[in-house]
Design brief:
Blueprint: H1 23-39, H2 48-53, H3 57-61, H4 64-69, H5 81-86, H6 91-104, H7 109-126, H8 135-150, H9 157-163, H10 169-182, H11 191-204
């Protein structure tokens, strides 16, 4: 993927491997998790067919249940995985996923804020809510895209697949390209938009 040459977003710093997340960063993660939890549809499983029939190819590409069913031999020991994936996520479930991703892959907070901006842009363009089967892949790919836009030296997709083995390397690349295409490749984030999002996120969570 082409790198942004004139990035206007504050560049993220390099942190030591698996360093604890700073308090400011944890507040951002919590605020983002609250927003994402509110964005996930709360429809019952009986309405899933209708939800996805009204969707598009992008929605189907990001369905965890389809990816897992294609890899039944890999997840054979976890018979309840589809039931857990279908559960409407709580703020805590989302926070644990996001914190684990950022800590394991050594990512910085700039990527988190940019990722949320991308997800908001996508929801406006597509007019579609997140679903319990799609929120993790969408968040993952939004973070990858933000990471690649911000960093000169990036983690490889193989590292993200190791963290999230529901998708393979080729599948992750396909999701990444589909996500960018759905954004009309408008991945630039101005400093004014970034700072606005950061201020609003920090206002959602009180300083402990």
């Amino acid at each position: 993927m082409a790198k942004a040459e004139n990035r206007d977003v504050p560049p993220s710093c390099l942190r030591s491997k698996k360093a604890p997340l700073a308090p400011h960063f944890r507040r951002l993660v919590l605020a983002v998790s609250m927003i994402l939890e509110d964005a996930v549809t709360k429809i019952p499983p009986a309405k899933d067919k209708e939800f996805f029939e009204e969707g598009d190819d992008l929605t189907d590409l990001f369905r965890e249940d389809i990816h897992v069913k294609d890899k039944q031999e890999f997840f054979v020991a976890d018979k309840d995985i589809l039931l857990r994936m279908r559960q409407v996520p709580t703020v805590t479930v989302i926070r644990v996923f996001v914190e684990g991703l950022f800590q394991e892959l050594n990512l910085c907070e700039s990527a988190l804020i940019s990722a949320l901006i991308y997800i908001h842009r996508l929801s406006v363009l597509k007019g579609k809510a997140l679903h319990p089967y799609t929120w993790r892949p969408l968040v993952l790919v939004a973070v990858i895209l933000a990471h690649k836009m911000l960093e000169d030296v990036c983690s490889s997709n193989a590292c993200f697949v190791e963290f999230y083995p529901v998708v393979t390397g080729p599948e992750l690349l396909q999701l990444e390209l589909a996500f960018c295409s759905s954004l009309n490749f408008k991945c630039f984030v101005s400093s004014s938009i970034y700072e606005k999002y950061e201020a609003e996120l920090m206002s959602l969570v009180e300083d402990p």
